[in-house]
TrEMBL record:
The organism's taxonomic lineage, starting at the top: Bacteria, Pseudomonadati, Pseudomonadota, Gammaproteobacteria, Natronospirales
Membrane topology: Multi-pass membrane protein
Stated name of the protein: MFS transporter
Superkingdom to which the source organism belongs: Bacteria
Keyword Ion transport recorded: no
One GO molecular-function entry: transmembrane transporter activity
Annotated compartments: Cell membrane
Species of origin: Natronospira elongata
Gene Ontology CC annotations of this record: plasma membrane
Pfam short name (any one): MFS_1
Length: 488
């Protein structure tokens, strides 16, 4: 093990920390870019492979399902195995899925490629959060989280534009090939330069203490819940496609709770779920994600295309300012959460998200630049949620459980996104079928936009719940003794 001459008191050298953050930020960018540019290619994929709209939805659903489940599993694996090796294997799996997608001769092969992509990409958010928790001390993590998370905005902003250009010029297989080339570069950088956790900072006992039964139960619960919210969106609350998976999800969650309380080798330590700050951060993740992803990134394109009759590219331009705001303000918000604690940053940021949603509920029928302004306010607020909330969740995590704690937090995070989109979609459909007065008394514009105004209010209610969860987050991080070693 070599030691950088610029080693800081935290135990992680400045140069090693910068390399780690650069690799993780690039990985997050590639993951977000891959998903956001594939979305705009779905109409062309449907035409080329002759599949129905409902079948084409599996391009998104299969990826999201495997991705959500995989985050917790990768997090637990990284508690026992080298961070660098785990990350490298995940990138290679991601690359293999990209190659399958590029060469796909049929729709089934393409969906299999998307599943393989998700099986690798799921490692990125869990290991990014877990590596920062392990290798940076409290007081420095917020800025580090902000650096990694800022790349979300770049990927979200450029994905639709890159996707549109590439599909127009070369066809959708080139999207997968482009992702493959980026992943090869990223895997090379990971192998040559990424710092690693020391063996002493990993969980003791090896993978025989992984907690296989707990892994199966939490995976079943997450997958069933995801299918339930998908069923809610497609078939409504009374359909067996909704309540059937929901029953399975609840039963598996109860089984998981019993497992971690009574197993000699639990998948996650029971104390993690008794930590008020950690659970509160998970609650914020669920409802803030539901508000912004459902009320913003999911609802705004529908409003722009269906109500304002913009093209997909035009709708993407409305989204671009908010994505840019996430890039610009995430690192600043993380640094501020290190200085004054996450709770106040979260409360102020969620207040901005709430203001943006209430503004959009009133201005739903206004011109696109006005809608873009409301979404920009939401984007500035959301930038102040992601890294401070991850920082708050990290307060509860020692190095030995940083992986599983980060993985479960990310599981809540992505389930919030799925829940938000499905709930918003189902509520919007309901309000479009039931013609009544606007729920917002300040809305006085066109009646045709009332369902969108009401749906923005639903997202605002989710933001209020997220604000309530911030009351359980500690104002300052706990003191942590010891510092991690960095193996080079």
């Amino acid at each position: 093990m070599s030691v950088d001459p610029q080693t800081r008191d935290s135990g992680v050298s400045r140069s090693s920390g910068q390399v780690l953050l650069a690799i993780m930020a690039l990985a997050v960018f590639v993951s977000v870019l891959n998903n956001s540019m594939i979305n705009v290619a779905i109409p062309r994929i449907r035409a080329d492979l002759a599949v129905s709209a409902s079948a084409a939805g599996w391009i998104i659903t299969a990826y999201a399902l495997v991705f959500a489940v995989g985050t917790a599993l990768y997090g637990r694996i990284s508690d026992f195995i080298s961070l660098r090796k785990t990350f490298l294997v995940a990138l290679l799996v991601f690359a293999a899925g990209s190659l399958m997608g590029a060469l796909a001769p049929s729709f089934a092969w393409l969906v299999a490629g998307r599943v393989m992509q998700a099986a690798g990409a799921a490692a990125i958010p869990a290991l990014a959060l877990g590596s920062v928790t392990r290798l940076f001390p409290p007081g420095e993590r917020g800025q580090a989280f902000g650096t990694v998370i800022s790349s979300v905005g770049i990927g979200a902003a450029t994905g639709p534009i890159v996707g549109g250009v590439v599909v127009s010029l070369g066809g959708w297989p080139w999207l997968f090939l482009g992702t493959l080339m980026l992943l090869i570069l990223l895997a090379t950088a990971t192998w040559l330069r990424m710092p690693d956790t020391a063996a002493a900072d990993r969980a003791k006992g090896g993978l025989r203490h992984f907690g296989l039964m707990g892994a199966l139960l939490i995976s079943l619960s997450a997958a069933a819940l995801f299918l339930a919210v998908t069923g809610l969106q497609q078939a409504g609350p009374d359909s067996p496609r909704t309540w059937g998976p929901l029953i399975v999800a609840i039963a598996a969650a109860l089984g998981f709770a019993i497992h971690i309380r009574h197993s000699a080798t639990p998948f996650a330590p029971p104390a993690l779920f008794r930590n008020r700050t950690y659970l509160s951060a998970c609650g914020v993740a669920v409802f803030a994600q539901a508000a912004f992803l459902g009320g913003g990134l999911f609802l705004i394109p529908l409003l722009m295309i269906e109500q304002h009759e913009l093209s997909p590219l035009g709708a993407g331009m409305v989204l671009a300012p908010s994505a840019l705001a996430i890039f610009l303000f995430s690192r600043m918000a993380g640094r501020l959460s290190d200085r004054i604690g996450p709770r106040r940053v979260l409360q102020g940021s969620l207040a901005l998200v709430l203001m943006g949603l209430l503004f959009l509920s009133i201005q739903t029928d206004s011109p696109p630049p006005v809608i873009a302004f409301g979404l920009l306010v939401m984007g500035i607020g959301y930038a102040g949620v992601m890294s401070p909330n991850a920082n708050a969740a990290s307060f509860a995590l020692t190095r030995e459980i940083a992986g599983i704690g980060s993985g479960i937090y990310q599981l809540f995070f992505f389930m919030g996104a799925g829940l938000g989109a499905s709930t918003v979609g189902a509520f919007l459909s309901h309000r479009q079928e039931v013609a009544t007065a606007a729920l917002n008394p300040l809305y006085t514009a066109a009646a045709s936009a009332i369902p969108y105004s009401d749906t923005f209010l639903l997202a605002a209610a989710s933001t209020v719940i997220a604000l309530l969860f911030t009351l359980g987050i500690g104002a300052r991080p706990r003191k942590e003794t010891g510092t991690p070693d960095i193996e080079r």
